[in-house]
Specification:
24% strand; 6-stranded mixed β-sheet
């Protein structure tokens, strides 16, 4: 079964069991929502299928077996079929699944809607912010056709595409969309020479029009120096990798020697600016804390809830910087290569899932 077929099955809530046979460490890193797990990977490679005996798998109902890249799962699926189970293997495994997506919508005030496009495996969140038949795309992270199809289905005219910063965990699809649709590509202004392609630079206080509403640009450095947050007067704030629902952005990626502390302090000041917005403002971040279910529930929360949920926001600047730097998670794989591609604006000839596979590690909690 390919990723698109499985994605559609889950989206339509059809009866299907996803059986994850990867090792515990891989499972803990990321997983398909609602999947069943058995630590059988090494045993299956050796032809040992005893770990499946204790599983209560449906007879006659579909089962999709998942491993890392789709090879060992084929062995498991073949064995399960010999036992009367309607089993298939997920083509390309979890590496291919990293491109799967689902949707949720959040209605703000004044006819403004945030359509949340969730790259379910990596937890990447992008948005079509729509109002009065027009839309702006923020931080696109899945195929360009996805955004075009969503807009077409809702009768939306896409006016532009904006990134909150130069991303390190996924390849931005913004330049591809801008070229395909002939629309502006907005990026926060940055140090000269970082990004090597034309874009429309944004600075603090700029406004991006969408129909009869606007998004106001807030320069919120810290995760990167150029990071921006986009505030909607309709009651939403698109925070990118600056503020999450359960943590804050990491300040160390691509940092020069000794620069992480300076960026941590800048992040503190940026966060104080964000949390000064009305507490009912919906926080719409650039990532979720893990894989996202096909439940249609937006990954969003009122700012007052987020402020209470994230203890780091209660600290002084010095304590915040010290605590933040002590909690930096492992460095995400391939981040330097991904940043390099995003800075050039070119697209790799190789399969992008090789670069992007794995959960994101942009948050500090």
């Amino acid at each position: 079964m390919d990723v698109q077929a499985l994605r559609e099955q889950l989206e339509q809530h059809r009866p299907i069991t996803v059986l994850d046979i990867r090792v515990a460490e891989s499972r803990a890193e990321w997983a398909i929502p609602g999947s069943l797990w058995v630590d059988a990977y090494h045993a299956v490679k050796q032809g040992d299928y005893r770990s499946f005996a204790a599983l209560d798998l449906p007879v006659g109902a579909p089962v999709v077996v998942v491993c890392e890249m789709g090879s060992t799962s084929q062995l498991a699926a073949t064995y399960l079929r010999s036992q009367g189970v309607a089993a298939e293997s997920l083509d390309g495994g979890m590496r291919a699944w990293s491109l799967a997506w689902n949707l949720a919508e959040l209605r703000l005030a004044g006819g403004v809607t945030a359509i949340q496009v969730r790259r379910t495996g990596k937890g990447c969140l992008s948005y079509l912010v729509s109002a009065y038949g027009e839309a702006l795309i923020i931080d696109p992270a899945v195929g360009t056709d996805v955004y075009r199809e969503i807009a077409a289905a809702r009768g939306l005219n896409i006016l532009g595409v904006a990134d909150t910063h130069v991303h390190a965990d996924h390849l931005s699809r913004s330049r591809l969309l801008a070229q395909d649709l002939g629309i502006p590509h907005y990026l926060p202004a940055q140090a000269a020479g970082r990004v090597h392609f034309p874009f429309q630079a944004l600075v603090d206080g700029d406004r991006i029009p969408i129909g009869e509403t606007v998004l106001t640009v807030m320069h919120t450095p810290g995760h990167t120096w150029e990071s921006c947050t986009y505030h909607s007067p309709a009651g939403g704030v698109f925070t990118g990798d600056t503020l999450f629902l359960d943590g804050v952005g990491r300040p160390d990626l691509e940092a020069r020697a000794g620069e992480a502390d300076e960026r941590a302090r800048a992040l503190y000041r940026s966060l104080q600016r964000i949390v000064s917005l009305p507490e009912g403002t919906q926080v719409l971040p650039g990532h979720a804390g893990g894989s996202l279910a096909f439940d249609g529930i937006p990954w969003a929360a009122p700012l007052g809830t987020v402020r209470a949920r994230v203890p780091l926001l209660q600290l002084s600047e010095a304590a915040f910087a010290q605590t933040l730097l002590a909690r930096i998670p492992p460095t995400p794989p391939n981040h330097s290569r991904i940043v390099a591609w995003n800075e050039t604006g070119r697209w790799p000839e190789d399969d992008p899932t090789v670069l992007e596979a794995g959960a994101n590690r942009c948050a500090v909690r």
